[in-house]
Structure formats: structure tokens, C-alpha cells
Amino acid sequence: MLAHKDYKVDQARPDDAAAMLHFWQGIPGLGIGQGDDEESLQLFMARNPSTCLVIRDAEGLIGTVLAGFDGRRGYIYHLAVHQDYQRKGYGQTLLNRAILELQTLGARKMHLFILRDNPTAAAFYERQGWQNRHDIQVFSWDTGR
Ligand SMILES: CC(C)(COP(=O)(O)OP(=O)(O)OC[C@H]1O[C@@H](n2cnc3c(N)ncnc32)[C@H](O)[C@@H]1OP(=O)(O)O)[C@@H](O)C(=O)NCCC(=O)NCCS
């Protein structure tokens, strides 16, 4: 097990995409959807190099976060920590770094989405001080329908 001093947060690289997809498949609670294919991920990481982050050890990924700034808001996706490493502060570390990097790009407000049946994520984000919005509904448009 890595001690805190032994890990660092790195920028994800486009060639991490396949390993990230494999990693997320083993994480319950993560909503895998459209955009979670190697090509789309590589595009996202190429557009948002400073805000797509990983923590890894010699054996592979321990945690990930994908964040992006659209010029108005920051968005955070796929914050995930390997089940064997949860509740050790890795999630908080990745989230805080993503927030910092988004702020550096000029984002003053950030949003994220979690599935309604993911109480762990809700507890985590509430603990981090995020506001659970009840005044907004999410509408989506799918070009492939
Ligand atoms: C959400 C997630 C990223 C948190 O990562 P983590 O490394 O375990 O979280 P941390 O150790 O940094 O937790 C920080 C604090 O958040 C809260 N928290 C974290 N997990 C929690 C849980 N299962 N239940 C209640 N509170 C929790 C705690 O207050 C914790 O501090 P503490 O351990 O000192 O009490 C991780 O549970 C995960 O990967 N979940 C599956 C993927 C997912 O749902 N991602 C979010 C939606 S995209």
C-alpha cells in the first residue's frame, strides 16, 4: 500500500485512455456512458491536459479524475479511486487538485453530476463542501438517438 508521501498526482496522458477505461469498469457507482471510448477520451484529455489527472503506482492506476473548463464553467467527471485504496484521502487529493487547476484556467464555478443511486459519492461531495442543488434539472440531448 502506498503511503501518502509516496504518491504524486500526474497529468493523465492520452495513451492512458485504455487503462482508464479498464480501471473504471472495475469501479461500482461510476456512470460509464457515451464519451467513454478510447478516441473520445483522448480528445478530452488533449483538450484539457492540465485538468485530467491520475494517481498511479507501479502496478497501475489508483485514482482518476477528468475535469474540463468550457470557458464559463468547470466540469468534473469520473473521479474514481480503486476500491482497495478508498477512504485514504486519494479522492479528496484528486478533487482538490482538479479544482485548483480549473481555477488556474479561470473557472470560478464548477459542476458535477452523480447518479441518484450513489450515496457514497453524495456523502463524499457533501463532506468536501459541494452544494447539492435541488433547483436545477438536467436535460440531455443525444445526437445518436
Ligand atoms: C467517491 C470516491 C472517489 C471517494 O474517494 P476516496 O479516496 O475513498 O475518498 P477520501 O478518502 O478522499 O474521502 C474523504 C472524505 O469523504 C467522505 N467519504 C468518502 N467515502 C465515503 C463513504 N463511502 N461514505 C461516507 N463518507 C465518505 C469521508 O468524510 C471521507 O473522510 P474520512 O475518511 O476521513 O471520513 C470513491 O468512493 C469512489 O471511487 N467511488 C466510486 C466512483 C464514484 O462514485 N465516483 C463519483 C461519481 S463520478
TrEMBL record:
Keywords: Acyltransferase, Transferase. Coiled coil: none annotated. CDD domains: NAT_SF. InterPro entries: Acyl_CoA_acyltransferase (IPR016181), Bact_Acetyltransf (IPR050832), GNAT_dom (IPR000182). Residues 7-145 form the N-acetyltransferase domain. It comes from the Bacteria. The keyword Zinc does not apply. GO terms for molecular function: acyltransferase activity, transferring groups other than amino-acyl groups. SUPFAM superfamilies: Acyl-CoA N-acyltransferases (Nat). This is Acyl-CoA N-acyltransferase. It comes from Syntrophomonas zehnderi OL-4.
